[in-house]
Structure prediction request, 226 residues.
Amino acid sequence: MAVIYCVEDDDNIRELVLYALRNTNYIAEGFEGGKEFFTKLEEKLPDLVILDIMLPEENGLSILKKLRDNTKTKALPIMMLTAKSSEYDKVKGLDLGADDYIIKPFGVMELISRVRALLRRSALSKITSNDIINLGKIFLDNERRLVTVDNEPISLTYKEFELLHYLLKNKNIVLTREKIMNEVWGFDFEGESRTVDVHIATLRQKLGQAGTAIKTIRNVGYKIGG
Prediction:
């Protein structure tokens, strides 16, 4: 039975989320803020975290960054709760490594559907994860979240790493922008495909000469390799 933590300072929303999760046979615990949440993480890691962005002491984006920077929690599935008007926070959260988001106010059915989908994607990712992949001078160590080019470490953001990992897992295969968006940013991310183009450009720049391995397939998308 999956264990889910919800970090939300609004009592009514937190209780609604916990009720919905428990009523769907998940083990759910709620926290008002980051302090008690991190204390609980020391005792037990959950299978998924639902994290509000607007929190009183430490905001959700800061908590998200700490989770992604910690070896123990870097792969923890995280769903962000965002306000309807917070487009910047939504995109920022996804770029920092959130796996999905849901906009408040939301329906219970939508929440449970997204939770189930995220847990399925997480389980599949663990099964299909390639630990070490290389292409030419590019080496990617998925377990250590490390990328090197010609033995020199390259600093990538969370989503840049995920994008490169996805390309390398599918080297020599043409991937559409929509497919990349769905796989790297989440199945229901409503951002424009321009997001993919911007990240590809940044990734090529950081990889230097090795970045030429990422090919643009006109009017379709991208592939890496020959």
Summary: The chain has a mean pLDDT of 88.
